[in-house]
Specification:
This protein is of the alpha/beta class and 153 residues long. The protein contains five helices and six strands; from the N terminus they run E-H-E-H-H-E-H-E-H-E-E. Helix 5 links the parallel strand 4 and strand 5.
């Protein structure tokens, strides 16, 4: 199962790629947490943008023979139920950099230990260089305590 959060695309998505390694059954999930949504005080335009992105992601997944499950609820309640219902053996997601998200991820990891054989968190760093118009995407995988060498400059 791949938990989409901020990287709402199929291309250039390292944590999604990790989800597909040795995968027999794939579930894509996006969770709308009503508590976080109320606290964020998000504008109507930003909600529309999110819904457009989710619609586009679902279309892309359907083109590949899958779909996006958009679920309402707190991840710490929703994910363990999905782990059991879908017999999930691997959970992948990108690393959260904000304190609230980091605390949530720790709670999900503790809950997931009971149900999931493997949880893979991928840290994606985007570095902007003023001399270049594109974004350099550099990925660190924290698997088996291995890290990639620093990016070439």
């Amino acid at each position: 199962m791949h938990w989409f959060r901020k990287d709402l695309r199929l291309h250039d998505n390292p944590s999604l790629c990790e989800a597909l390694v040795n995968c027999r059954t794939f579930h894509a999930v996006y969770i709308i947490d009503p508590v976080s949504a109320r606290a964020a005080n998000v504008s109507a335009n930003r909600w529309k943008f999110l819904l457009d992105c989710l619609t586009d992601l679902d279309k892309s997944l359907r083109d590949c023979g899958s779909r996006l499950h958009v679920i309402r609820g707190q991840p710490t309640y929703v994910l363990p139920k999905l782990f059991q219902e879908w017999n999930v053996s691997k959970l992948t997601f990108e690393c959260e950099t904000e304190p609230f998200g980091q605390r949530r991820d720790v709670a999900v990891a503790v809950l997931g230990e009971e149900f999931v054989e493997e949880a893979v968190e991928t840290l994606v760093c985007r570095l902007m260089f003023p001399k270049h118009s594109s974004t350099l995407l550099y990925v660190f995988y924290f698997l088996n305590n291995a890290t990639l060498p620093p990016p070439p400059l």
